Amino acid sequence: MSEVRWPDMWGEGLLFAFSGVDGDSNWSHHFVGSLLGDRPGVALHCRPDVIVSFEPRQGEITALRPRYVLGDAFEMDVELSTGVVAQCCLAFSNWQTLVGRCSSELELVTAPAWRETIQNACGHLALAREREAGGTRWALALHPTTAHLALELAHKAVRLPVESVLRERRSFVGRQSLGGTTAPTDERTYRKCVSVLKVNALSPEGRIARRWTTPDRWPHRHMWLWDSVFHAFGWQYLNQRWAQELLLALLESQEPDGRIPLSVKPEGENPLQSQPPIIAQGVWDVFERHGDADFLEACYEPLGRFIAWWFAERDRNENGLLEWWKDERDELCHCGESGMDNSPRFDQPGLDEAIDLNSYVVREMNLLARMAAALGKRDEEQQWRQRAAELAGLVNERLWNEEVGLYFDRRATDGEFVAIKTCASLAPLYAGIPPFERATRLVEHLTNPDEFWTPLPVPSVAVDEPTHSDDMWRGSSWLNYNYLIYRGLLEYGFRDEAAELRRRTMVQIQHWYEQRGAIYEFYDCQAAVEPYALHRKGGAGTEGGYGMGTVRDLGWTAAVYIALAHSAE
Q1: Measured between alpha carbons, how far is 71 from 285 in angstroms, rounded to an integer?
Q2: Is the pTM of this model over 0.90?
Q3: What are phi and psi of 285, to 5 degrees?
Q4: 118-148 pLDDT, tens per residue?
Q5: What average pLDDT score do residues 489-500 get?
Q6: What does the alpha-carbon distance between residue 560 and residue 146 come to, in Å, rounded to a whole number?
């Protein structure tokens, strides 16, 4: 393993599950865990949690020295107060079986304790042990319905060669390479991000007939629209087929009216809302990198139908500008459709012509024009370009505030600006909407330390806004948005600003990985508060809204690091 710099940071709450990259996963019978922070082990989210940990037979643990920590396997030395250095390892052999080994100074402990089998909401869990020279091998197996079958699985798995299982789990991450990039990239953090994308990848199941991805195996679990596109931005550098399939899985979830749901799960109803339309960007990026015309052809028509749905369903005052759907009854998530759930942009009731939504749609229509040209559909190319230009013209006419020098949402009822400086005000850069003079004014706001140019840009709400806080989309920095702004800066030629935004983004992802072992959902824009301690829809840490703290090992942050590492800039 000396030739690979493995991710080796241990941390509480890191995701642990069998990946669809290595075989069949199972969404329906959820066998997913989170690593413990103070000792080697995992909390399996089996409702209630089942704790599996390695404990010293004598003395106490004084230090953990991991050799590697992946989303489906770890191996480490454990220093004990007796002066002994013990060893342990743990890995998924398949979606329903964990195998491990520990030296004789350690023992496997479960909580709640059981001898052979136990039943909970996930099914039947069974435990098998075998003594070997110098220690113990063991296996933990889940069977959805039957205790004796779970026990059979466990007794079969305990005979597996553990080192072979560990080698298989390391294989995908170990094969990935930075490819000579000159970006300020840390190899260990890069492979951690690869591991995060891997653990959040699932095999086909139920009505999702393709390989697909989820933001995080716990607690979100489902396939979310714009998260999946950001995943593709990273996956295109790891595996072409995965990048294509996760986008096709999104498009194949399309409803008869053209809507692509906010989230999809293998079984059950889909929500009635959608999410930011950025799929064409993911499709075009993958096509440009890999050049598969059949893939482009398969995506083109569904993408056009999706754009038609937005104009049919989200221009309720029929003035040509689009509005998000808001749920004013939900106190914690005013506008989940926007992806910026609790932004102060949405504190007031009523329809708002949305600067980010209209920007996304302009960008998507221009990309559809490129697709049409690549597919030889010249008439459609011109139609898409004309429609994009018309919508961009409306954005510049109606959503630009000349006095402030920013774009804002505008109330559809009285025409008043929702004059709150958020990262959404910079979305037109990504879409190529502003003339250069206006783009320059946007960049002046972006690079103002009193607004957006914080130690970790770009705060979701400017720091000089009265509504700014560290609560999710009310001020914390979301690095997926950084990536869109970064691309916009490059397209306008602001290369120095783009390079600095990339540097600060990557440095902070690496910093907090080295501190806590995790890749986080969002970060403190001041780079001071630990991500797990930030507020999430009203509460801090594990007391965040819906009982969730800041999510760890989130897919799109990992994908952004990978994409930035491979950036040509």
Answers
A1: 27
A2: yes
A3: -60, -45
A4: 998 889 999 999 999 999 999 999 999 999 9
A5: 98
A6: 42
Three-state DSSP class for residue 15: strand
What are the tokens at 191? 């492979």
Tokens representing residue 347 in the block: 């504190």
The amino acid sitting at 159 is: R
Which of 131, 87, 537 lies closest to 335 in space, CA to CA? 537
Q: Are 517 and 14 in contact (CB under 8 A)?
A: yes
DSSP string over 43-102: EE-SSS-EEEEEEESSS-EEEEEEEEE-SSEEEEEEEETTS-EEEEEEEEEETTEEEEEE
**Predicted pLDDT at 182:** 57
145 vs 122: CA distance, rounded Å: 9
Q: With 0-12 CB in 10 A as exposed, 13-18 as middle and 19+ as buried, what is 63?
A: exposed
The partner residues of 477 in beta bridges, in order of sequence, read 459, 523
Task: Select from 213, 201, 197 the least CA-distant residue to 95.
Answer: 201
Provide the 3-class DSSP secondary structure of residue 457: coil
Q: pLDDT tens digits, residue range 386-396?
A: 999 999 999 99
DSSP symbol at 195: H
Question: In 10 A of CB 4, how many CB atoms?
Answer: 16
Phi and psi for 15 in degrees, rounded to 5? -65, 145
Dihedral sign, CA of 251, 255, 258, 261? negative
Which residue's entry shows tokens 């643990």?
A: 61
Of 189, 140, 114, 134, nearest to 18 by C-alpha is 140
How many CA within 13 A on the CB side of residue 297?
6
Residue tagged 């949690």 (tokens): 49
In this structure, what DSSP letter does residue 199 have? H
Given this model, what pLDDT does residue 178 score?
83
The dihedrals phi and psi of 321, each to the nearest 5 degrees, come to: -100, 145
Single out the residue of 316, 320, 354, 359 nearest to residue 338, CA to CA: 354
Which residue's entry shows tokens 């003079």? 437
Cα–Cα dist 458/460, whole Å: 6
